[in-house]
């Protein structure tokens, strides 16, 4: 049995979730191949070859794979899938875009967002916003799986796998990447940061998020937000943590002015240490917090920043 991992990358470098996905695949106890499809993507392929547990990297290099668009990529994966027992990708925006199309074209059911591998056909995945863990078994001949990256520690970097260049599939011409609007930030990426400082509706305005930026800068942290803060226009929606936002599991998560609705907890309760600052002692966030501070954030956060400054 062999698993095909679909690498997420920007042609120059691999996204870290790929290493977590390989860690999940290693639990299957099968041979592992990694598909790097991109445009001038040899640097990403070389990084994939260095990941522990990888037996072979398949590199498909063509202009029409540049943006990782699902249509062309899924067709390539499907054309090679019969040689594999498993096809895995991270449960990121990228994986969630590509793999359902692959599963549909292979006429198999997708197993989404796994957090544990119990056997090559049996997995654990959260349902009901993370309140229930379901054990699911797939009898499909090819198991198409997305992996919750935060549930698996990234595989190491001691690999020396060969890179095989494969013929790209055709450009189906169904979609074209016209432009990409990226948020440029000197802070760490939200899903990769070791510390995340998140703000909620309690911040009252986008302007007040500057307070959290000052705290995040002291800690080298990324900034996240609740959906209420995003919907109120305080911050862009790629800040959103939760069921319909990003899933994070940093070593330290500081929730400021966030009530702790289950949809928010679904995105951060795997964090190693949770600190909550909220003026309402009954706020549900305190039920998951390791350290809770019942205080007005506009007083507590400046005090925290000045204490850290010392
Ligand atoms: C299908 C669905 C999906 C959803 N997905 C998500 C998701 O992905 N992520 C997400 O976050 N939510 C999500 N939600 C929304 C979620 O249910 C909550 O509405 C949202 O998380 C609330 O955000 P909040 O805690 O910032 O706001 P509120 O619930 O309004 O809480 C604000 C908190 O700030 C505190 N506060 C106010 N002023 C201060 C102060 N001065 N000092 C200290 N504390 C203060 C208050 O005590 C309160 O606890 C989803 C909802 C649905 C129905």
Q: Give the number of domains.
A: 2
Number of strands: 15
Count of separate DSSP helical elements: 9
Largest sheet: 7 strands, parallel
Order of helices and strands: EHEHEHEHEEEEEEEHEHEHEHEH
Q: Can you tell me the CATH superfamily of the largest domain?
A: HUPs
**Poorly predicted ranges (pLDDT <50, ≥5 residues)?**
none
Provide the helix percentage.
25-40%
- What is the average per-residue confidence, as pLDDT, rounded to a whole number? 95
- CATH topology of the largest domain: the name is Rossmann fold
CATH class assignment of the largest domain: Alpha Beta
Q: Estimate the strand proportion.
A: 15-25%
Organism: Pseudogulbenkiania ferrooxidans 2002
Keywords: Electron transport, FAD, Flavoprotein, Transport
Subunit structure: Heterodimer of an alpha and a beta subunit.
Protein name: Electron transfer flavoprotein subunit alpha
Any descriptors?
Rossmann fold; seven-stranded parallel β-sheet; binds flavin-adenine dinucleotide
Describe the structure.
With about 300 residues, this protein is α/β, with parallel strands linked by helices. It has 2 domains: about 1-165, Rossmann fold; about 195-310, TPP-binding domain (Rossmann fold, 3-Layer(aba) Sandwich), CATH 3.40.50.1220. It is about 25% helix and about 25% strand. The strands form 3 sheets. The chain has a 7-stranded parallel beta sheet with strand order 5-9-4-1-2-3-10, sandwiched between helices. A 5-stranded parallel beta sheet has the order 12-11-13-14-15. Strands 6-7-8 form a 3-stranded antiparallel beta sheet, with no helix packed on it. Helix 3 (about 70-80) packs across helix 4 and helix 5 (about 210-220) packs parallel to helix 9 (about 295-310). The longest helix has 14 residues, at about 95-105. It starts with a strand and ends with a helix. The mean pLDDT is about 95. The site of flavin-adenine dinucleotide has 28 residues, from helix 6, helix 7, strand 14 and helix 9. Flavin-adenine dinucleotide binds near residues 200, 245, 257, 264 and 278. Heterodimer of an alpha and a beta subunit. InterPro entries: DHS-like_NAD/FAD-binding_dom, ETF_a/b_N, ETF_a/FixB, ETF_alpha_N, ETF_asu_C, ETF_asu_C_CS, Rossmann-like_a/b/a_fold. Its cofactor is FAD.
